[in-house]
Fold Glucose 1-dehydrogenase.
Amino acid sequence: MSKLKGKVAIVTGASKGIGAAIARSLAAEGASVVVNYASSKAGADAVVAEIGKAGGKAVAVRGDVSSATDAQAIVDAAIQHYGKLDILVNNSGVYEFAPLEAINEEHYHKQFNVNVLGLLLATQAAAKHLGEGASIINVGSLVTRIVPPGSAVYTATKGAVDAITGVLSRELGPRKIRVNALNPGMVETEGTHSAGFIGSDFHNQAAAQTPLGRIGQPNDIASIAVFLASDDSYWLSGEHLYAGGGAR
């Protein structure tokens, strides 16, 4: 039986990588999905087409979550197409590594605007429509545990995601809305390929330090997102689930 039949979900940053895998998995479990993208319309359309081919329902919606107007428009599109909203996956994120001496205002604001402000704006817009049993999933990162050199700003954004998750679980808990963080370790995506991580010493070191012996794949994370979106996790809120194959 489909775990999410009749549910409506928004997945931000869902045109590729982890977001795309989450969108496909939610749809496979019966949810109608808004596949949000900021720039890759072709990627988002491809995800929607895959979902449709598999018998699911999805629509691609452009929007930059760091803009309050865009964040509201993404939520409005979900209501317009499907009439309600039950699940929000705050997956949109950017990362850029730099040593302390290279950090500047642009490096800082680029990441905080999307990773932190974007999460807040999307949640603010969505919360008006979420009811009892709704689930908000904030995609954080294992980086807050392993704190690698050169990641001060990125790690700070994901630390903020963890903190915000706790705060919002208390704010929204009285409305029976659950808020949890899903924190992946290193995952093989288009982004980690283009950043040069895959096949690098960093990749090899990450795999060697992971008890399960490899880095993650997008579907490894998507299956946990389905759990957090479903009633199977009805008694979890304010939690940080680390999904890194045992890496610490």
Remarks:
- The longest strand covers residues 178-184.
- The mean pLDDT is 96.
